[in-house]
């Protein structure tokens, strides 16, 4: 047990957890030589004060939504001091990611994997105010420390290539055409020294399909790696059957006034599960029609009988339990998690306090004062499960009204032109909403910003055309360069209270070179979701909303058929046209007339003379013979 | 050498080259064109259908729509029937009056007829909304109003969207159930089936595309209003859609307007202006219906198709008639102009298949469409179907219409060449002494051709023919405008007026042209030929272009115009014979005039002219139908010029 003091030394503040010891033993075994022991001791002595900020938290937050949905929000957060980060002394912070960030001079990183749509009508405002979600697919933005733009971009490419390998995502396809430099849409969330020369770069891959291959590396970044704690609930089958799901990785520096900095990594997984669907056993996942006797019918209907059933739906909230919904119970708590002294419990659920909840023995329940939230302190040694019995819906935990609804669609049809229509709806009866609308368009979609038009529908329900400048207070526009960079558009907008604003603009679709079409099935080209940053007050954190991504059909050759058709038709037309044209422009005349006609022009006269001369000459020759 | 001498001989006989040969070639073109079409049903010229897009995998999945879903179906149906019994009118009940002109007499003509397509009571939209909302769909409604031929069509569409569970709102499939079918029957079972399917589909998590359930009051205007608004191309009288999804990949219309069980599925696929859905969609529907479900598939109302030559030909001809008329044959037709492939499934006959079988067919069809990775593009968009599993593609059938269109062009070119010469009655004349004396270039070649004298070259007088042809084509805008603007009760009288105008106008024009009326110098015979040449050139040009867009319309109009190639001003006959022939010809031509054909067709099929013209005006105003443009701006002017030329022989 020579390593025990070492562990204690490494954990001056934490003295619990058998699991932690076994966990760390692996790390220590690798450096068990005397030299490294000595070296480690030196490092410890030198950096001991900094370890004070090295900690790890994890929390699962559950909230049932109407229509049998369940929001499960997992949050994993750990800190490491700037000094140990700089010295590559990683403890809770994942080494793989840390080294990439150092190599790419990245000071702040935000990476998002999202699929599905957030249904604001049924689910209310987004978790974390939308700050932890991305657009459909993969979204990445980072602040990179570099002396100039070019070097920043070089580092950015290094970053995307490395992350691509780490997360098994196609991030390496974020090239210059997909990279933008937003000006006002994003602001650093960390504390950066004033002297640093930071460059914000942003890239999105709307067509990327997020799947288990992205989840596995994500889990590996966690200290407990899905073995214990709330991360045990991650089952690829359930997670990727969710109606909406978002994974995020955020790395940022946090500094105190005294200048002590820590690097914080926060990983979240938010998902909205359809409870009914998730409860289906894996052995029988097909939603077959239920047997007749299991139908829930409205018996008050006069025609209700054995073979006629008007379905009665959503009178009760369905029962569910963690092990049913996630396919397995929660396997204890992660021993590395810092649970003492903080108000963060590993599991919280937001349902009205009146609702009964069953949970595993040995768990402590805490009801918070807001009347809805209750949290659980788990017994670390036991698997934890939580069950909510079927209950009639009488009180639901209230959902806030989203501040702004936004929808973006492509309108028009045809291969050449189209239009973009963006609808912003402000449901608030009193307050106007100020926000920044950020759009990055691929170069082959060429917007005509001069066609930007605004229509406003006020309280009276009448549509009025107004100049776009009445609503747009600031426009930042960076036009596209073919095959080099995309269009970047940032608009600072304001939507008056209780109104709907519709922005439209026209665009033209470029024709690609045939090598520029991807080799996949031609579904169309994805346009990255627009990002909306709502500015409500200076102090509060901004709210982010993202629109859905768009599918842009471009004129696409069939690559073999038109080739044949063009060649054949060209030949036929050339033959047919040539003949007819010949007949039309050429006069069929007899030779004598041709002479008569031809002799009138200068060329004809000269030719006639030449011919006459030749004729004479010829005749003379014959005479000679 | 033989060819060379043949050509040389031809040159020597200008009347053969200019008079007989073009007539012969034109006639051969027409005959070959028609025979070509008649050959198409043979096995040698047609092909069996096949699924071109492998991703579709039709019928490869098990359809689970059975069992207790039928109880739900009955429950929904009783619920809607309850509304009917409570006295609320079914949404499209009063639409009967739209096409039935009986109410015309009693109404003040100035009043806009409010045809209450959707019923003013909002009971039905409300009910649908509530059912769809409870089933977990996003629901929205859209009100619309169209005015055409003095009739106002209004209604309210209800639609619900199933969000693809993990989708990103980029693609969608549409299922349509109209309260009134294309045949104007109450589609109670169809609507109920769509509702049941909506609730059933909601449970599946495998959808990669959003599924939109659209309930329209009728099959004519509702889908048009919806799909126009979906692409933001709607007129002001149509409300925009508050809720949208992604690009529409396919649409299936469900009809089930009777209570008994059915025998087979009738697949309707014709779109507006003769546009057709991708053949893969039709094939998938046939493969699923007949292959997977064991339900027979019919098309073009051929109920007992015995796969004989006659039956195949009849199917083709029925398809061509629908395509040629270019009207919307069902709620699916409105999707076609937006390049959204759509079909209607109509259960027909007495059999033992019930609504659940139809439901399973639609489920399987949706699963196939759901598999699509790209927009349907692999298979044909231009085809003629002769049986549910046999077709000819455009490459095979196009020459038929092209030959018929080509006959006009050939004639026009021949006439143009002919106008460049003074034709003589005696083709071969002795050499003029001048030519013998001419010492100039006497090569071997010229020596031979110089033996006969060709006709001297003449100037062409183009101004009058060009003005007349252009003017008459522009005149076609008058009937086009009239028939699309007037109120529907005037349509019958306007048609008869046009019949009379068609008799009188050519004679008046002929008289004017022959005598000049002091306004311009009297016409010379060459100009008659030029008029005909230009008219036929334009006709040939329009029809051959049209053949690539709407083969059937081009073919039909080409056939109806075929006599125009061969008639012209009669010359060189004795006066009584000429008068007799001209009058006889004019009578025959008047029987082939657009209004007469319209009246004849209406009489034959037993529909009123007003109905047809109201429908046509509706097509023009709402569907964007172009058939009238072709009739009034291509066919009618060409016909008029033919009559004028024939009529001029009298003067």
UniProtKB/TrEMBL annotation, chain A:
<feature type="transmembrane region" description="Helical">
    <location>
        <begin position="31"/>
        <end position="52"/>
    </location>
</feature>
<dbReference type="GO" id="GO:0016255">
    <property type="term" value="P:attachment of GPI anchor to protein"/>
</dbReference>
<keyword id="KW-0472">Membrane</keyword>
<dbReference type="GO" id="GO:0042765">
    <property type="term" value="C:GPI-anchor transamidase complex"/>
</dbReference>
<feature type="transmembrane region" description="Helical">
    <location>
        <begin position="563"/>
        <end position="585"/>
    </location>
</feature>
<dbReference type="Pfam" id="PF04113">
    <property type="entry name" value="Gpi16"/>
</dbReference>
<protein>
    <recommendedName>
        <fullName>GPI transamidase component GPI16</fullName>
    </recommendedName>
</protein>
<dbReference type="InterPro" id="IPR007245">
    <property type="entry name" value="PIG-T"/>
</dbReference>
<keyword id="KW-0812">Transmembrane</keyword>
<keyword id="KW-1133">Transmembrane helix</keyword>
From TrEMBL, chain B:
<feature type="transmembrane region" description="Helical">
    <location>
        <begin position="529"/>
        <end position="547"/>
    </location>
</feature>
<feature type="transmembrane region" description="Helical">
    <location>
        <begin position="397"/>
        <end position="417"/>
    </location>
</feature>
<dbReference type="Pfam" id="PF04114">
    <property type="entry name" value="Gaa1"/>
</dbReference>
<feature type="transmembrane region" description="Helical">
    <location>
        <begin position="582"/>
        <end position="606"/>
    </location>
</feature>
<protein>
    <recommendedName>
        <fullName>GPI transamidase component GAA1</fullName>
    </recommendedName>
</protein>
<feature type="transmembrane region" description="Helical">
    <location>
        <begin position="494"/>
        <end position="517"/>
    </location>
</feature>
<feature type="transmembrane region" description="Helical">
    <location>
        <begin position="21"/>
        <end position="42"/>
    </location>
</feature>
<feature type="region of interest" description="Disordered">
    <location>
        <begin position="425"/>
        <end position="451"/>
    </location>
</feature>
<keyword id="KW-0472">Membrane</keyword>
<feature type="transmembrane region" description="Helical">
    <location>
        <begin position="553"/>
        <end position="570"/>
    </location>
</feature>
<keyword id="KW-0812">Transmembrane</keyword>
<feature type="transmembrane region" description="Helical">
    <location>
        <begin position="461"/>
        <end position="482"/>
    </location>
</feature>
<keyword id="KW-1133">Transmembrane helix</keyword>
<feature type="transmembrane region" description="Helical">
    <location>
        <begin position="626"/>
        <end position="647"/>
    </location>
</feature>
<dbReference type="GO" id="GO:0042765">
    <property type="term" value="C:GPI-anchor transamidase complex"/>
</dbReference>
<dbReference type="GO" id="GO:0016255">
    <property type="term" value="P:attachment of GPI anchor to protein"/>
</dbReference>
<dbReference type="InterPro" id="IPR007246">
    <property type="entry name" value="Gaa1"/>
</dbReference>
């Amino acid at each position: 047990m020579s390593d025990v003091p070492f562990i204690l030394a490494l954990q001056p503040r934490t003295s619990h957890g058998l699991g932690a010891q076994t966990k760390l033993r692996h790390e220590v075994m690798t450096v068990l030589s005397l030299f490294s022991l000595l070296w480690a001791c030196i490092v410890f002595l030198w950096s001991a004060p900094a370890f004070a900020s090295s900690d790890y938290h994890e929390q699962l937050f559950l909230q049932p939504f109407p229509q049998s949905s369940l929001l499960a929000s997992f949050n994993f957060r750990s800190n490491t001091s700037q000094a140990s980060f700089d010295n590559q002394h990683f403890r809770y912070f994942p080494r793989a990611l840390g080294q990439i960030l150092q190599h790419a001079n990245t000071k702040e990183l935000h990476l998002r994997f999202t699929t599905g749509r957030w249904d604001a009508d049924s689910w209310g405002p987004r978790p974390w105010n939308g700050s932890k979600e991305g657009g459909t697919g993969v979204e990445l933005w980072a602040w990179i420390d570099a002396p100039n733009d070019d070097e920043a971009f070089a580092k950015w490419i290094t970053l995307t290539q490395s992350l691509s390998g780490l997360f098994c995502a196609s991030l390496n396809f974020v090239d210059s055409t997909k990279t933008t430099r937003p000006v006002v849409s994003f602001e650093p969330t960390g504390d950066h020294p004033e002297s640093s020369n930071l460059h914000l770069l942003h890239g999105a891959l709307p067509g990327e399909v997020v799947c288990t291959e992205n989840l596995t590396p994500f889990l590996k970044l966690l200290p407990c790696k899905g073995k214990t704690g709330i991360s045990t609930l991650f089952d690829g089958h359930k997670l990727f059957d969710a109606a909406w799901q978002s994974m995020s990785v955020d790395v940022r520096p946090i500094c105190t006034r005294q200048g002590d900095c820590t690097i914080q990594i926060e990983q979240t997984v938010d998902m909205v599960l359809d409870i009914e669907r998730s409860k289906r056993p894996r052995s029988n996942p097909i939603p077959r029609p239920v047997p007749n006797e299991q139908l829930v019918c409205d018996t008050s209907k006069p025609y209700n009988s054995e073979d006629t059933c008007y379905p009665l739906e959503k009178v009760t909230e369905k029962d569910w339990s963690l092990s049913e919904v996630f396919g397995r119970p929660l396997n204890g708590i992660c021993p590395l998690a810092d649970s003492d002294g903080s108000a963060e419990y590993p599991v919280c659920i937001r349902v009205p306090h009146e609702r009964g909840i069953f949970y595993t023995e040995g768990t402590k329940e805490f009801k918070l004062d807001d009347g809805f939230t209750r949290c659980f302190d788990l017994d670390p040694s036991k698997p934890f499960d939580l069950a909510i019995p079927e209950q009639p819906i009488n009180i639901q935990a209230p959902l806030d009204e989203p501040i702004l609804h936004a929808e973006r669609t492509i309108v028009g049809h045809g291969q050449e032109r189209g239009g973009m229509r963006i609808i912003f709806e402000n449901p608030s009866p009193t307050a106007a909403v100020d926000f920044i609308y950020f759009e990055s368009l691929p170069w082959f979609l060429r917007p005509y910003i001069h066609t930007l038009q605004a229509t406003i529908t006020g309280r009276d329900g009448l549509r009025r055309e107004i100049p776009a400048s009445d609503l747009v207070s600031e426009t930042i526009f960076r036009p596209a360069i073919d095959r080099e960079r995309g269009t970047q558009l940032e608009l600072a907008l304001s939507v008056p209270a209780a109104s709907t604003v519709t922005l439209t603009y026209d665009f033209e679709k470029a024709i690609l070179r045939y090598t520029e079409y991807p080799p996949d099935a031609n579904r169309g080209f994805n346009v990255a979701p627009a990002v909306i940053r709502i500015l409500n007050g200076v102090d509060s954190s901004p709210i982010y909303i993202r629109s859905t991504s768009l599918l842009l059909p471009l004129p696409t050759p069939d690559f073999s058929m038109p080739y044949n058709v063009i060649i054949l038709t060209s030949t036929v037309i050339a033959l047919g046209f040539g003949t007819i044209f010949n007949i039309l422009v050429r006069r069929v005349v007899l030779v004598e007339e041709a002479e008569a006609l031809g002799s009138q022009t200068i060329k004809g006269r000269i030719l006639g003379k030449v011919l006459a001369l030749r004729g004479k000459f010829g005749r003379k020759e014959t005479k000679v013979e | 050498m033989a060819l060379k001498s043949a050509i040389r001989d031809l040159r020597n006989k200008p009347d053969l080259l200019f008079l007989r040969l073009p007539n012969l070639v034109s006639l051969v073109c027409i005959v070959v064109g028609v025979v070509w079409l008649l050959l198409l049903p043979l096995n040698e010229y047609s092909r069996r259908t096949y699924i071109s897009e492998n991703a579709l995998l039709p019928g490869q999945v098990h359809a689970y729509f059975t069992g207790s879903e039928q109880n739900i179906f009955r429950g929904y149906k009783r619920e809607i029937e309850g509304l009917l019994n409570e006295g609320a009118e079914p949404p499209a009940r009063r639409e009967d009056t739209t096409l039935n002109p009986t109410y015309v007499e009693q109404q003040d003509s100035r009043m806009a007829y409010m045809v209450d397509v959707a019923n003013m009571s909002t009971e039905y939209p409300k009910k649908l909304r509530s059912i769809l909302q409870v089933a977990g769909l996003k629901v929205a409604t859209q009100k619309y109003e169209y005015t055409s031929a003095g009739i106002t069509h209004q209604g309210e569409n209800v639609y619900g969207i199933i969000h693809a569970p993990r989708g990103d709102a980029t693609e969608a499939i549409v299922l349509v159930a109209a309260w009134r079918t294309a045949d104007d029957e109450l589609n109670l079972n169809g609507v109920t089936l769509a509702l049941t399917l909506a609730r059933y589909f909601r449970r599946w998590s495998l959808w990669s595309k959003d599924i939109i359930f659209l309930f329209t009051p009728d099959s004519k205007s509702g889908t048009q209003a919806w799909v126009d608004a979906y692409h933001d191309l709607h007129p002001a009288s149509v409300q925009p859609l508050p809720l949208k999804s992604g690009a529409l990949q396919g649409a299936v219309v469900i009809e089930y307007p009777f209570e008994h069980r059915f025998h087979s599925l009738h697949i309707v696929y014709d779109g507006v202006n003769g546009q057709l859905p991708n053949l893969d969609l039709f094939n998938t529907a046939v493969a699923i219906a007949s292959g997977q479900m064991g339900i027979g598939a019919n098309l073009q109302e051929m109920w007992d198709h015995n796969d004989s030559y006659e039956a195949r030909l009849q199917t083709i001809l029925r398809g061509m008639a629908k395509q040629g008329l270019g009207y919307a044959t069902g709620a699916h037709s409105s999707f076609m102009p937006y390049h959204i492939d759509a079909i209607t499934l109509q259960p027909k006959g007495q059999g033992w298949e019930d609504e659940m079988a139809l439901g399973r067919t639609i489920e399987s069809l949706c699963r196939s469409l759901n598999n699509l990775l790209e927009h349907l593009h692999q298979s044909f968009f231009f085809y003629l179907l002769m049986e549910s599993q046999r077709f000819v593609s455009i490459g095979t059938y196009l020459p038929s219409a092209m030959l018929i269109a080509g006959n006009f062009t050939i004639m026009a070119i021949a006439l143009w060449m002919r106008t460049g010469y003074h034709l003589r009655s005696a083709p071969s004349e002795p050499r003029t002494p001048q030519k013998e004396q001419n010492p100039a270039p006497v090569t071997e070649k010229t020596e031979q051709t110089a033996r006969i004298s060709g006709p001297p070259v003449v100037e062409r007088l183009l101004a009058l023919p060009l003005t007349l042809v252009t003017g008459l084509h522009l005149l076609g805008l008058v009937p086009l405008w009239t028939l699309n603007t007037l109120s529907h009760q005037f349509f019958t009288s306007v048609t008869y007026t046009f019949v009379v105008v068609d008799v009188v106008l050519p004679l008046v024009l002929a008289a004017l042209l022959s005598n000049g009326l002091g306004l311009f110098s009297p016409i010379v015979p060459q100009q008659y030929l030029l008029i005909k040449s230009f008219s036929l050139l334009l006709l040939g040009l329009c029809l051959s272009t049209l053949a690539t867009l709407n083969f059937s319309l081009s073919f039909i109009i080409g056939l109806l115009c075929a006599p125009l190639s061969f008639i012209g001003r009669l010359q060189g006959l004795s006066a009584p014979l000429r008068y007799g022939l001209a009058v006889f010809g004019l009578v025959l031509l008047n029987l082939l005039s657009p209004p007469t054909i319209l009246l004849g067709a209406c009489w034959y099929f037993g529909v009123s002219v007003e109905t047809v013209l109201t429908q046509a005006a509706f097509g023009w105003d709402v569907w964007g139908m172009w058939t009238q443009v072709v009739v009034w701006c291509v066919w009618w002017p060409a016909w008029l010029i033919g009559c004028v030329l024939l009529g001029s022989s009298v003067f």
